[in-house]
């Protein structure tokens, strides 16, 4: 994703990459690359993060100490890191989303609407598919979809992850996320509403990683004029 962000910013009219963080960089980039965020001594106006959940706490710490707005796109964050993000957002503008595409945010809005209409008679299941290099499962997006649905239905469902080892039939109170990993699949999410003799599926398929990089750059631009706070895609697409 880092390379995709660099490409999106290559000919940008107002933004430019002034530094990168990569622990094993062999890059010939025209800007300094640091092994860790702590080593970064370049003044930056915004941090865009696509990394690994284990390093996000150090990014947040750096952003707070330097009063730098931050766009956090990394998924698989621990509960402790989630709390850290909330604390940080009291001091600096923080943009946080497990999916930076417009399409997924529309899918969530549609799935919420469908869930409120169908929750009594339809089983809801989420299937996500990603490339074989992804380290976290289920995807951050699948969790966002499930949480979004649970926020609006009368009886929030218990979340399950896969059905392996389950020796009882499906309960109406559950919603399961199924994760598939293979090849170079960029990112696919299906929300299934399965009723008697009919199934409605709401799907999103990312065709390239560029879509996430563009979303992150838009989020960085959005943060430029924001006060400290926690922001997400709903603040950008407020009319979805
Ligand atoms: N919100 C969104 O829209 C999107 C979010 N993502 C999320 O962004 C994150 C990154 O995705 P992606 O770029 O595809 O993943 P990659 O694995 O390609 O890149 C992750 C980067 O983080 C580095 N890294 C991993 N572990 C550590 C560590 N312990 N210390 C320091 N650096 C580390 C990796 O370095 P190295 O190569 O040396 O391991 C690599 O440079 C994931 O969490 C993914 O789910 C991805 C796409 C869209
Ligand atoms: O790791 C990825 O590639 C992606 N991760 C995000 C997620 O976990 O939902 C977003 C996107 O689906 C791509």
UniProtKB/TrEMBL annotation:
It is found in: Cytoplasm. Coiled coil: none annotated. Its EC number is 1.17.1.8. Catalyzes the conversion of 4-hydroxy-tetrahydrodipicolinate (HTPA) to tetrahydrodipicolinate. Gene3D superfamilies: Dihydrodipicolinate Reductase, domain 2, NAD(P)-binding Rossmann-like Domain. NAD(+) binds at residues 73-75, 97-100. Pathway: Amino-acid biosynthesis; L-lysine biosynthesis via DAP pathway; (S)-tetrahydrodipicolinate from L-aspartate: step 4/4. GO terms for molecular function: 4-hydroxy-tetrahydrodipicolinate reductase. It catalyses: (S)-2,3,4,5-tetrahydrodipicolinate + NAD(+) + H2O = (2S,4S)-4-hydroxy-2,3,4,5-tetrahydrodipicolinate + NADH + H(+); (S)-2,3,4,5-tetrahydrodipicolinate + NADP(+) + H2O = (2S,4S)-4-hydroxy-2,3,4,5-tetrahydrodipicolinate + NADPH + H(+). This is 4-hydroxy-tetrahydrodipicolinate reductase. Residues 1-100 form the Dihydrodipicolinate reductase N-terminal domain. The gene is dapB.
